[in-house]
Amino acid sequence: MRRMDVRSDWALELVLDKTYEAASATAVKDRIDAARRHMNGGAGGNRRGGRRLLDLLGEARKSASEAEDWEVLRVLQDCLYYAQGRLLRPDFEEKYRLFQQGPRNDNVRNWLSATLRASSKFWTEVGRTFVDEQPEASAGELLAHIEAQSLDVPFLEAPAEEPARYRIPRGRAEMALWMERVLQRRVEIDAKEAARRIVSSPEALAVLAADEDGRLVLQAAEWQRRSAALAHLRQVAEDPLASEHDLQRALRGQYWIFGGRFVGEAAHRRLVPGNEVDIPLIRGDGALHVVELKQAARLGDGLVKRHRNGWVPSHHVNDAVGQVVHYLVGLDEHRERIREEFGYETRRATGVVLIGHPDAHPGIPESEINETLRVHNTHRNRVEVLTYKELIDNAERSLGHEAEETPGRHTDRSA
After folding, report:
1. Beta-strand runs (E) in 331-382
2. Stretch (H or E) spanning 279
């Protein structure tokens, strides 16, 4: 059985205790108490975590949503992210420090202050050197020089002949930008990352420059990388033990899987207080696209259900769609601040829910599942629902592969 690291510690227990006191609905209190009992049920007084804790926290969050206790819901969402390792300990402890006794822990603040102070001294010295060398330079030229220096920082080198010393190579970022534009126009690959690797390796640059068919090699390498990424994602999606966190790791950095409409993955996931998007994508028109990840093959009994003479989406699907709609409403309400602070356009934001896998429903034809979700999608203009298999099959076809057939199943090819 796959091992899963779930954080279960004193900070989480303390926040759950206070959340229990703050909850007003009995059902919410019962769910929170179940999570606390599980945590404290370890052998020898040790706290327990595991998948069961994540499930219990998820049930408590759902109960708070049904009770419309939004404050408790936000805290439980953070507790779930903290247990999954998606919310860092300093952020979690600082955000809920009012639940703790004693003076505020200033270690993080002091570390950040020292880092900013050192950074300020460094850039002041960069500016002073430039002004000494070019006393006639204008303020605009000075700022342009500092900005150019900052763009070269990601290419920091540690010369082998100078231990414990580091060097920022001048002009490396400009060369990477040139290489990125060349690759984007001539080769269908992830140009930015490839350009950074190439310009950081003089040997790779020399080989590429000397080889007229270099782009074919790059195309083949990128095709192979994407094929391997899809194979890994399919393996995770078909694993009945895989968690949402496992699925998120398999999809990280693979925005191309979602189709050619998207130009990249947004750097920020927490855009609205209390909400954190699983995967935020950027469409070609600059608008945000929210990807909400749910269980795949582990969702054993909840993708569709029988209703009269047909199939309809289950409450798991409807709950997930409602969650994305809630995200989109929050993005709409904060659109001006998000545009100013992050540069994302959220007024036209859309979303997709990835949920379930046909393998978890061997008694239902895959075509019936896909058609049920497709009909459901036609009645919504901002949120789409897809199974992981349908997403992967579409991506396979975009690479020129034949989508995988499942033995004994009627695979829908019309997507």
Report:
1. 345-354
2. strand 279-283
Q: Residue 310 gets which letter from DSSP? A: E
Instruction: Give strand pairing partners of 275.
Output: 272
Token pair listed for 301:
């009994």
Residue 408: predicted pLDDT? 39
Residue 262, classed as helix, strand or coil, is strand
SS3 state at 256: helix
Is 389:357 a contact under the CB 8 Å cutoff?
yes
d(CA 387, CA 364): 14
Burial string for 212-250 (b: 16+ CB within 10 Å, else e) reads eebbeebeeebeeebeebbeebbebbbbeebbbbbbbeb
134's CB contacts (< 8 A; 6+ apart) are 141
pLDDT score, position 171: 63
For the chain, the domains span 10-99, 110-220, 241-398
Who's near 16: CB < 8 A, 6+ residues apart?
A: 32, 35, 36, 39, 79
pLDDT attached to residue 100: 52
- Low-confidence stretches of the chain (pLDDT beneath 70): 1-4, 97-109, 154-222, 300-301, 401-415
pTM (two decimals): 0.48
Instruction: Please tell me the distance from the alpha carbon of residue 41 to that of residue 59, in angstroms, as a whole number.
Output: 18
Rounded to 5°, angle at Cα 126 from 124 and 127: 65
Q: Looking at residue 407, what is its pLDDT?
A: 40
* CA proximity to 369, closest of 407, 397, 406, 411: 411
**Residues 122-171 pLDDT 10s:** 888 888 888 888 888 888 888 887 887 777 776 666 666 666 666 666 66
In whole angstroms, give the CA distance from residue 61 to residue 239. 25
Residue 92 confidence (pLDDT) = 82
CA nearest neighbour of 242 among 404, 22, 51: 51
Helix (H, G, I), strand (E, B) or coil at 349: strand
Quote the pLDDT of residue 363. Answer: 79
In angstroms, the CA 73 to CA 75 distance is 5
Beta-bridged to residue 293, according to DSSP, are: 354
Closest by CA to 64, choosing from 30, 87, 38, is 30
Q: Could you tell me the end-to-end alpha-carbon distance of the chain, in angstroms, rounded to an integer?
A: 34
Per residue in 189-203, pLDDT (tens digit) is 455 666 666 555 656
